[in-house]
Amino acid sequence: MQRGAVPFLVSATAGTTVLGAFDPLEAIADVCQHHGLWLHVDAAWGGSVLLSQTHRHLLDGIQRADSVAWNPHKLLAAGLQCSVLLLRDTSNLLKRCHAAQATYLFQQDKFYDVALDTGDKVVQCGRHVDCLKLWLMWKAQGGQGLEQRVDRTFALARYLVEEMKKREGFELVMEPEFVNVCFWFVPPSLRGQRGSPDYQERLSKVAPVLKERMVKEGSMMIGYQPHGTRGNFFRMVVANPSLTLADMDFLLDELERLGQDL
Ligand SMILES: *Cc1c(COP(=O)(O)O)cnc(C)c1O
């Protein structure tokens, strides 16, 4: 503001990459409406939750967005890549932004409505017909089939969280809102040491060591990262609907096994 800059857009996130957090869209939409700001919702990760009657409340307010990005290739497991940009705009905005009107490519004097052509509306020009994958998957699974997939991943994540709470060596970063289960594995030598000055530093070295071990063992692949002031923690994203409760138990047993000497 001091520099005379005028904000024109708010980009909210529905399902953040690491923690799986959802911004309060209704409240943000109120602010945007009041100030006449464009509201974009990055629902790349969390957008698929809309298919679940049980969990869609996480996205309440998304209907007020001016634009929404959603990746069916994430939680719905559509073949990479399958990304959707939804716009409220009906004035052919994409064409107005991107069209180069190359006369050697895009003829306007065709026998059908040329507004249906996508080639001149996007930056890339040549494209896969990625939406066909989503359409076919939706046809094959039905809305209910996709809903079950989403609900199943939530149930598996919930099971994993409850089992973690029963075991000594697992500490949750937070109660998950979504299917990102963020946690530290606290190895035997660090248990009960939380008060010691180098605890955080030692704890943050655990995840890289365990990751190396699980990869070399060939048993699992779980991502880890630091986040803000928090040292490295694991982020188990339960997104595959064919996972089972037994897989969740295996994950916990395997981490205990791989980390027992640490
Ligand atoms: C994955 C992700 C993106 C990036 O999506 P791409 O289609 O890979 O560019 C953006 N935002 C969030 C929150 C994501 O999880």
From TrEMBL:
Query: Required cofactors, per record?
Result: pyridoxal 5'-phosphate
| GO molecular function annotation | pyridoxal phosphate binding; sulfinoalanine decarboxylase activity
Instruction: Tell me any Pfam family this protein matches.
Output: Pyridoxal_deC
InterPro entries assigned to the protein according to its UniProt record, in alphabetical order: PyrdxlP-dep_de-COase, PyrdxlP-dep_Trfase, PyrdxlP-dep_Trfase_major, PyrdxlP-dep_Trfase_small, Pyridoxal-P_BS
N6-(pyridoxal phosphate)lysine modified-residue sites: K74
Q: Which family does it belong to?
A: Belongs to the group II decarboxylase family.
The subunit structure is: Homodimer.
Q: What is this protein called?
A: Cysteine sulfinic acid decarboxylase
Q: Which gene name belongs to this protein?
A: CSAD
